[in-house]
């Protein structure tokens, strides 16, 4: 019976041999292409995520208090500072008043004073509108053309854990350095603490203290 079978087609036999010999290579190449595409996709996703993380850097300052000899006394993150730590708040408020009220003929330094003032203010708080109104009617750059004002903070007293009374003296001089007037002021500041979230804020307001409200009057 085997002798009666038609002989195999040599072309079909060659095609079958080709498929058997190289078919596995084709499948392997296809698999490697899929692996390559998958690897490239993972690399793109990883790179994109790394770029996203690089834009989400969160800097948290760590504050160390030292004594007169430079020995570390206390340390901690800003969120651990409570309103009861009045020394930190008083120092910050003293700098705030000095920056707000000082007038210097050096425009660069004057701008730094203003920047430090607004570093402790938030847009929606009443204190910001009050200080905006003051600067609109009393440009320090214009006043600096004829006089300067130096600030001496006399006393800062805590009225509560969020409200402080600040007394200061302003010494006004003409551009020749002659003193032309001395005035005493009293201000009431209501403050809040918020952890700073970016480097720019940390540089000007490292503990995240903001003046929510601020009123001041001249004293007789």
Protein described:
The chain has 220 residues and is of the alpha+beta class. The chain has 2 domains: 10-55; 86-218, VirB8 protein (Nuclear Transport Factor 2, Chain: A, Roll). It has helices at residues 10-54, 86-101, 107-118, 126-137, 140-143, 199-204, and strands at residues 63-66, 72-76, 147-158, 163-174, 179-193, 209-219. Strands 3-4-5-6 form a 4-stranded antiparallel sheet, with helices on one face. Helix 2 (86-101) crosses helix 3. The longest helix is centred in the first third of the chain and has 45 residues, at 10-54. The model is unreliable at 1-7 (pLDDT under 50).
Report the principal-axis shape: rod-shaped
Largest sheet entry: 4 strands, antiparallel
Number of DSSP strand runs: 6
Query: How many structural domains can be distinguished in the coordinates?
Result: 2
Helix fraction bin: 40-55%
How much strand? 25-35%
Low-confidence stretches: 1-7
Structural class: alpha+beta
CATH topology of the largest domain, what is it called?
Nuclear Transport Factor 2, Chain: A
> Class of the largest domain in CATH?
Alpha Beta
Please state how the strands of the largest beta sheet are arranged side by side: 3-4-5-6
Brief account:
With 220 residues, the protein is an alpha+beta fold. The protein has helices spanning 10-54, 86-101, 107-118, 126-137, 140-143, 199-204, and strands at 63-66, 72-76, 147-158, 163-174, 179-193, 209-219. It folds into two domains: 10-55; 86-218, Nuclear Transport Factor 2, Chain: A (Roll), CATH 3.10.450.
């Amino acid at each position: 019976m085997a002798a009666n079978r038609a002989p195999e087609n040599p072309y079909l036999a060659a095609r079958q041999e080709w498929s058997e010999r190289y078919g596995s290579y084709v499948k392997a190449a296809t698999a490697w292409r899929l692996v390559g595409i998958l690897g490239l996709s993972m690399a793109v996703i990883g790179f994109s995520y790394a770029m996203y993380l690089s834009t989400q850097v969160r800097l948290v300052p760590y504050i160390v208090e030292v004594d007169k000899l430079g020995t570390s006394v206390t340390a901690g993150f800003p969120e651990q500072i409570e309103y009861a730590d009045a020394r930190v708040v008083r120092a910050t408020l003293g700098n705030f008043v000095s920056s707000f009220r000082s007038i210097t003929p050096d425009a660069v330094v004057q701008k730094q004073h203003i920047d430090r003032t607004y570093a402790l203010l938030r847009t929606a708080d009443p204190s910001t509108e009050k200080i905006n109104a003051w600067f609109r009617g009393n440009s320090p750059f214009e006043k600096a053309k004829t006089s300067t004002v130096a600030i001496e903070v006399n006393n800062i007293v805590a009225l509560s854990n969020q409200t402080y009374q600040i007394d200061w003296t302003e010494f006004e001089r003409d551009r020749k350095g002659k003193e032309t007037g001395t005035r005493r002021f009293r201000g009431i500041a209501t403050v809040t603490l918020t952890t700073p979230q970016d480097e720019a804020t940390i540089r000007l307001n490292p503990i995240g203290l903001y003046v929510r409200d601020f009123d001041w009057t001249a004293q007789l």
